[in-house]
Amino acid sequence: MPKNIFRRFVLASGLTNLADGIATVAWAWLATLLTRDPLLISLVPVALRLPWFFFAIPAGIITDRIDRRLLILRMDAVRATAFFAAAVSIWLALPLADPPNDGISNPILYWLILCVATLVGIAEVFRDNAAQTMLPAIVPRKELETANGRLWSVELVGNALIGPALGAFLIAFSLPSPFIFNTLAYLAAIILVVKMSGKFQPETSQNRDWRREFMEGYSFLKQAALAAEFGVDYRFLESVFFNGYDCFGAACAGKSGAGCAGLWVNFGWRSLGRHSGWLARRQDHPAFRRGQDCTMDADVFRASIFGDCSCAGTGCAGVNSSGF
Q: What is the domain extent for residue 243?
């Protein structure tokens, strides 16, 4: 298959993951403008990540049955529509009233945003599953490892390095702008994917039972204790702590008077810290030995969470984020 197909696919994935990184900050910041209740604020980013826990296996079952390119297009269309609806709703609600310490200043907008965030999170699960399983149909088997590494690198740069800092910058420009930017990013990704040609329909038999396959996936997780523990541990901690820290940083920036500029500096430091950790990981240092990677990653992950909860300075955020 021509290399331009792979480049088009990677670019589309990079755009969608950039939008995901922007959304992580935008949802949290918007929540702090509607309420000061920590529980209500935390519900928004949790709504983005919790679908991974509930829909990962169902998404795999559906991905094995339909055209993966078509599934990607549909999920990107859903997210583009959702972000456009959020942008219009925010624009119509401006100017926002001061958020109360208890309750919500604009309940209709808050619950609408919460529903939209959940919808975006569900679409992300199906889209990312389809993208990963679609890769073998794009590149030869001998190039699959290299192609998968490049795809993950682009996704990491967009989602974890550039996205959050860019999201804070867009919020400083205007509140609806990150949602408008994401709408355009998903539309651009749709244009890139729709022009891809090839066979992306999996070979399936008519006698396949989705209930049996669901139980097989669940049984595999029960038997593969390491995979199950790592997956559940990571997703749970990411939803509760990782996105909770985003809300914490947004709330602190708003309350301390630092505003969007302080939030942008905070996430800029975090992006720098993550990039530094990623570069150190790639140097194949003797500390990163085979067989110890999972244990070390888990320990550093937990230490980073503790550091995030303990440090209030933006410099500390950059150091701790290198653990991710």
A: 3-321
Angle at 192 between CA 272 and CA 160, to 5 degrees: 15
Who contacts 207 (Cβ-Cβ below 8 Å, separation ≥6)? Answer: none
Round to whole Å and give the CA distance between 78 and 119: 8
The pair of structure tokens assigned to 258 is 């630092």
Half-sphere exposure of 249 (CA within 13 A, CB side): 33
CB 263 within 8 A of CB 169: no
Query: Tens digit of pLDDT for each residue in 251-278?
Result: 554 544 445 555 555 555 555 555 555 5
Residue reference for tokens 């408008």: 180
Whole-model pTM?
0.74
DSSP state of 135: G
Counting the structural domains of the chain, the total is 1
Q: Cα 256 to the chain's mean position, in Å? A: 27
Structure confidence at residue 238 (pLDDT): 55
Integer Cα distance of 129 and 151 in angstroms: 13
What pLDDT score does 283 carry? 53
Residue-wise pLDDT for 34-90, tens only, equals 998 888 888 888 888 888 888 888 888 888 888 889 999 999 999 999 999 999 999
Contacts of 40 (CB under 8 A, 6+ apart): 31, 34, 104, 110
The structure tokens 């310490």 sit at: 101
CA–CA separation, 91 and 99 (whole Å)? 17
User: In this structure, what CATH number is given to the domain that contains residue 279?
Assistant: 1.20.1250.20
105 confidence band (pLDDT: 50, 70, 90): very high
Helix 177-194 and helix 68-93, axial crossing angle in degrees, nearest 10: 160
Distance set, CA 300 to CA 20, 28, 161, 304, 306 (Å): 24, 25, 18, 6, 10
